[in-house]
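sorry for the late reply, my laptop died twice this morning and i had to redo everyting from scratch. anyway the thing you sent over, i finally got around to it. pasting the sequence first so we're on the same page, its 624 residues, then the predicted structure underneath. double check i copied it right bc i was rushing
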Amino acid sequence: MRKTLYIVTMVLGMFGFSSCSDYLDKESDTELDLKMVFDDKTRTEGWLANVYSGIPDPYLGYLKYAGWEVLGDDMTPSERYRQFDWKVIPFILGEWTTNSSWDGNFWANFPQRIREANIFIQNVHALNEQGITSAEVEYMKAECRFMKAYYYALLANTYGGIPFAPDEITPSNFNLSDLMIGQTPYDQVIDWCDKELQAASKILPAKYTEARKYGRATSIMCLAVRARMLLYAASPLVNGNTDYANYKNDKGENIISQTYDANKWRKAADACKELITEAEAAGYKLYEVKKSDGKIDPFMSYQDMMFKRFDDGNTEILFARPGGCDYVEYEKLATPLRSSGNGGMGVTQSLVDAFSMENGLPITDPASNYKEEGFSDADEQRDNTDWASLCNGGSITRKGTYNMYCHREPRFYICVNFNNGYFNQEDRVYNMFRGDGTETDNNGTHDAPQNGYFAKKKIYYKDNVKQGSYQYRPGILYRLGEAYLNYAEALNECDPGNEEILTYLNKIRERAGVRQYTTGNTDDNYIHVNLDNQSEMRNLIHAERRVELNCEGLRYDDLRRWKEAEKVLTGPFYGMNANGRDAASFYKRTEYQTRVYKKAFYWFPIHQSEIDKNTKLKQAPYWN
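ok and here's the structure:
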C-alpha cells in the first residue's frame, strides 16, 4: 500500500495540503486522493510538471550531479571540489566502485517519474469547465508517453541492462517478490522506445504558439530523442560487442547483442533524416547572426546560439529543459576568485588542441600555420565579425598573446578563456600567472584554475557575478546542429561516399566560419577530402563533433559508444603550468592530473544495495 501512496503523498505535499496523514490510513482513501488531483486543473498540470522534473540540468547538472562534463575530456574542475561533495571527481581518478554514490541516480529517480506518467495516463480526463479539453488530454497523455521513452532511453544508455515494465503501476496489495524482476536486453528496450517515440510524434504538434507551453513535449522532441537514441544503438559499444558475451540476465539472455547489425546504422540515418526534414518543414533552422552585409557572423552566431530563446528566433533548439537551469552556479565556477567566482572550472588542453586554425586545418597539419612558441606583435582583427567590438574589448586577441591562441577558428574564442584573453566583466585581460593579484592568487585553495584555462562556452559575456547580474538562457538538450552531425555520422557508416555527408558537415562549418569540405581541389574556400574513404571521413566527423558540440554533455557518451574511452580517458591530462609565475614558466604543456578509466566504467554500476535486495539483477560487466 505504501508504494502506491508514495507519489500521491508527494504530490499532495507539492500542492500545499496542510496534512497528508488523513489520506494514508485506509486503502479506500487512495482513490479519493487521486480523484482530488485529477478533478482539478492546477493539480493535474502540477502532476504532469512533476513527470518532467527528472530531466537533467545541462548546466550544473551535467557538471556536478550527472557529471557528464567531468567524466569526458572537455571540462575539468579542480580536484579539491570533491570536498564539496562533487561525487564524480573520484570516478575520473579510478576511485569508483559498486558502493559509490552518484547524485544523478537515474536508477532510483527515473522509475518514479515513469510511474507518475503511468498514473497520469490512467487517471487524467477532460475538465471542460476548467479549460482542459479532451484534445488537451490526448496531448498530455502523449507527453507522458514521450517522457517514459525518454527516461527509459537514458536508463538503458547509462546502465545497459535495466528492469523493464513500462506500463506497470504497482498495486497497493503487492508482494515484494513480484517487484524483483531481472533485466531486459538492451535492444528490446530501445525497440520499445522507438515505437513509443514514433507514436507520440504523430500526436503532438511540432511546436507551440502559447508561451506557457514552452518546454512541453513536441513531435520534434520525440524525433530528436529517437534519432540520437538510434545513433547510439548502432554504435560499437552495443552493436555486436563481444566484450559482453558473458553479460546475461537472469533468464540467460545476452543483454548486449553479440551480432553486429549493419542495418542499425541505416535505421539511425533514416531517423536522423526524418528529424531534419520534419524540423525544417516546421521552421527549425540553424541559428545565425548576420552582419550588415548579409553574411553570417560566425562568432556571434555560435555564441548567441546558446543564449537566445526559442521565441527570440533561436529555432535551432529542438529540446530545452522546462523550468530553467542552474546557470548561476555554473558561471561562478568559471569566474575568477577575486571577481566573486569560484575560479576552478577549466577546459582541457586536448579541447584547446581540437579547434582548427583560422584556415580550417587542424593544428597537426603542417599547412595550418600553427605556432606553439612566441607571442603576437599586434592586436588581431577580423572583418567577418562584430564580436570583437561588441563582446571582446575591440580585438580577437591582443598584442602579446601566446601564439598558440592566435589565428584559431571562431569557435575557439567562444569556448576557451586563456591568459591575456579579454575578461568582459571587469574590462581587463586574464592574468593566469601565479602571484599577487592574479587569477591564481587564492592562497592555494580549491579555486585556482588547475591547468591555466577557464571554461567559456555558455558563460554570458555581459553577466556580472560580482553584482549578481545574470542573463536568462535556455537549457538546451538537443539542437539541430547536433542532428546534422548525427546524420552525417550514420550516413558515413551505412552509405559511405554519399554526398549528403558533406552537405551536412558543411552546414555546420559554414556557420562556424571555417573552410568547407569538397571532393574538388583545395582553395581559399574549400578543403579537399576523400569522401569515399570511410575511415578518413569518420575521423573528420568525429573531430567536428568534438568542436561543435563541446561542453554540451555529449562528449562522454561519444567516447563510450565509439569504445574509445579507455584510450582517451586514461593517462596524463595536460594544460599550461598553473604554478608558473611568468611567461617562461607558464607556457609549458604540463601534466596536472592522471586519470584512470577501466573497462568496467563504460556502464554505470548498479549500486550494490540494489543487487543485495534483488538477486535477479546482474551487475554491469567487469564490475565484479
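The chain has a mean pLDDT of 92.
thats about all i looked at so far, will dig more tmrw
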